[in-house]
Design goal:
alpha/beta, about 375 residues, 6-stranded parallel β-sheet, 13 strands
Length: about 375
Amino acid sequence: MKILYSCLSQSWGGMEMFTITAIHQLKKRGHDVELLCYLDSRIHTQASGEGIIVHPVKAKGYFHPLVSWKIAKLISEGEFDLIHTQASKDLWVLVPAKKLSLTGIPLLLTKQVGSFIVKKDLLHQFIYRNVNYALAISEVIKQNLLDTCPLKESQILLLHNGIDTQKFNPALFSKPEVRSEFGFKDENIVIGMMARFSRGKGHEEFLKAMSILEKKYPAVKGLIVGEASRGEDTYADSIKQLAKELNLTNVIFAGFRKDTARVFSAMDIFAFPSHSEAFGISLVEAMSMAVPSVCTNSDGVLDITVDGETGYFFQKQNEVDLAEKLERLIVSPEKRKLFGENARKRAENYFDLEYLTEKVIAIYNQAVPRRKK
């Protein structure tokens, strides 16, 4: 099958990283996949560097007749069987391109982020009438699609994002060795957070919770992994300033790391304090690495964590509750071990990339013959 993947984002985060991962998985199974992306974006350079055929365009707003015409030409000449986009905004150039190509090519949308705007006017009806399937990465996104988009329930399918559980495998790493690189000692209990510096990720609550815990448990250490996304440097600076204002001596800012699986192996507990997350790929990665978690009790997290089994939920934006739930794991090595083992099993059973790739291929096979009849 020949597939045109689309992700016209200029940012670099979970959606963009997963796009590249998904393309490699499909290529590994013998499918021919090419990527439509934004010119000179991070995903453009990353995909090119990894040997993916890319088709860069500039499409910042919504209406781009020339770009749509260019994509229509690409669809026709490239003889693609299917288009799959990871961003709903891409539909505004892809749908006109699909119509212009006169190919009747199936179009699938993976919905990564929820919307508060109801899109059921005539223009949106035209756009979504040309979408064969919308793939929701969590139950909250599935409901959001039903509430806001002119789609039938039969068109909306649940398909979680996945991770490579063989890569994110605690058996591959030496925990003491990785911890020593950060200066952590055997007696330290390391609480990690991995997220880009962006408002709503919960860095403030994490730092305030660490401030509460530092007073009671001097051996507890915090490890924050991540970098500022495009245009978010000022916010990142404000978080580091907050750490200074709280006089935190137990938190390390590790910056961006490519070796995320290895870094997870240094952690005893993973904190996921995001205010509103459609899914939470780093949370699944931590689970696959057998790290117990404390997570916000809302949105896509509810698809991932099982409260009292793989981790604990805490009340959103409540640093006191976050500190209290972290403390439950700090004082109980038995709970940390049990929750970590349960988390690893759940990641393997529900979020393994191989399993989810087979699911999406089955959806492709369902979509393509329907349009070719």
